[in-house]
Design a protein that fits this description.
8 strands; 476 residues; single chain; 3 domains; 5-stranded mixed beta sheet; alpha/beta; elongated; 3-stranded antiparallel beta sheet; 11% strand; 18 helices
């Protein structure tokens, strides 16, 4: 009798097991007796849990023709499996709410913290929480490792590595929308290149073929080189049992339900969607957080490719930063420092002409104005007030960072001062602020002050030339 004839008896043994009233009745003695009756030489039979991550109870037959696993629970309908599936479906739903997938390379503690933060919040609040938490995970160094160390290792993505590097540096130089726009098409291009033999298929079918093959490798590794009924290697069963398959399946869901969702069907809130971008149906894809999403998603696609073609080029284990990653990270910091000098020079030039720097798609200028206003306030207003003997409380800049309020006090005496970002501020705002201020000061030169501050009766002038009064209680 040939090896294949002997090995083909494993399905026959499984048919006998399936005929039992319950697979829980399956035991080592039964399998050993059946195998001997069918002409197999039994070396050992045992009952133990098999697989990785969540284990499957099984009878393990070691024969002269190989090893076979005969599970003691059904592939569908088992109460514990169903309970675990319900819990994982709930977790997958949380990821879907923030348009993401079960992440690789993130410690479970941080994952749990993030999921807890979004669990009971509406979509918009959940997205804000997601962006806060991922900003502490997908940091500049993390992204640098992805761009410099992982993407170049991918057979498919390596051709896009220079573009990813340029996009990374451009993003942290201030050209954020351009960087996001550069990477969106790469996702589709990479999918087509991975599924080169099926590139004529619609992209969603390509996604299915790629991830199905990745799940097949995960299934082989889950149980090892043994015979087991095919339904236990199915992605639907292993979705519950194998963490890698769960991650791959949620990545599939993100690609199909979010990134590649057709324009009229997309109902998300990140707007990171290939069709909305390509057809100009929305400009909201330009939100800054979408850049780190794209970097991580592309790198994850590199992992999927490694499992799809079994190349193992991009590992499930996140590498330590090497010189390539460190130099790219330092390069981004250098670009950022230079860009800050450029931004400050631009800001000064526009302010000298009585204007705000025009908004960019991913930068309305508020953060920079807040920083500049806060710095000018400390240097030219708070310090002179304190030197004159006042205790000073500084408020927060308003939402547009056009002004900040300062209250100076000394005993019962108070002095209320407003510091404007620029003299060239709307007269209506001057008049509103004058109702609650003893002085209105501004940063920069007195450009057409008489025009902007027309009708305002409190003192108006540049902060650099203002001398605060001494509190009456300190005048001798």
């Amino acid at each position: 009798m040939t090896h294949e004839e002997n090995k083909s008896k494993f399905p026959g043994l499984w048919c006998r097991a399936m005929a039992l009233p319950s697979l829980a009745d399956l035991n080592a003695n039964l399998v050993s007796g059946w195998a001997s009756q069918m002409g197999l030489k039994v070396l050992e039979v045992s009952e133990r849990d098999v697989g990785l991550f969540r284990l499957t109870p099984a009878v393990v037959l070691n024969s002269d023709q190989g090893v076979a696993y005969f599970p003691k629970i059904p592939a569908t309908g088992n109460p514990q499996w169903m309970a675990n599936k319900a819990r994982l479906d709930y977790v997958a739903g949380l990821w879907e709410k923030v348009e993401w997938f079960a992440p690789l390379w993130v410690p479970q503690g941080k994952v749990n913290e993030l999921l807890k933060a979004i669990e009971h919040r509406p979509k918009e609040d959940s997205l804000r929480q997601f962006e806060y938490h991922t900003s502490t995970i997908y940091t500049l160094p993390f992204q640098a490792v992805c761009v410099a160390q992982l993407i170049p290792r991918s057979r498919t993505l390596s051709v896009f590595a220079p573009l990813a590097r340029e996009a990374y540096l451009a993003f942290y130089t201030g050209h954020r929308a351009s960087s996001i726009a550069a990477l969106i098409p790469v996702m589709e291009g990479a999918v087509s290149r991975i599924s080169s033999e099926s590139s004529e298929l619609p992209v969603l079918q390509q996604v299915d073929k790629i991830i199905d093959r990745a799940c097949m490798l995960a299934a082989r590794l889950h149980f090892g080189d043994v015979w087991i009924p095919s339904e236990y290697r199915d992605k639907d069963y292993l979705y519950v049992q194998d963490e890698r398959v769960f991650a791959f399946q949620t990545f599939r869901r993100w690609l199909k339900k979010s990134f590649f969702r057709h324009t009229g069907e997309y109902d998300g809130i990140t707007w990171l969607n290939r069709h909305l971008f390509a057809h100009g149906a929305s400009v909201d894809w330009q939100r800054s957080s979408n850049f780190s999403r794209l970097v991580v998603a592309l790198t994850t696609l590199g992992v999927i490719e490694s499992w799809h073609d079994e190349s193992n080029q991009v590992s499930l284990f996140f590498p330590e930063m090497n010189d390539d990653g460190r130099l790219l990270w330092e390069q981004s910091l250098l670009h950022g420092q230079v860009q800050m000098l450029i931004k400050l020079a631009e800001q000064k030039n526009y302010r000298d002409h009585g204007q705000l720097v025009p908004k960019m798609p991913t930068d309305n200028g508020v953060l920079l104005r807040k920083a500049a206003l806060a710095q000018e306030c400390i240097n030219d207003l708070v310090r002179p007030l304190r030197n004159a003997g006042w205790s000073v409380e500084v408020g927060e800049p308003n939402d547009e960072a056009l002004y900040v309020k300062v209250v100076a006090s000394c005993g019962e005496e108070q002095l209320r001062v407003v510091l404007l970002y620029s003299c060239a501020t709307d007269n209506k705002l001057y008049r509103e602020l004058a109702q609650e201020a003893d002085a209105i000061l501004y940063v920069g030169s007195p450009l057409s002050q008489h025009q902007f501050a027309h009708g305002v009766e409190v003192h108006v002038g540049p902060v650099a030339g203002w001398q605060p009064p001494v509190p009456r209680s300190k005048v001798r």
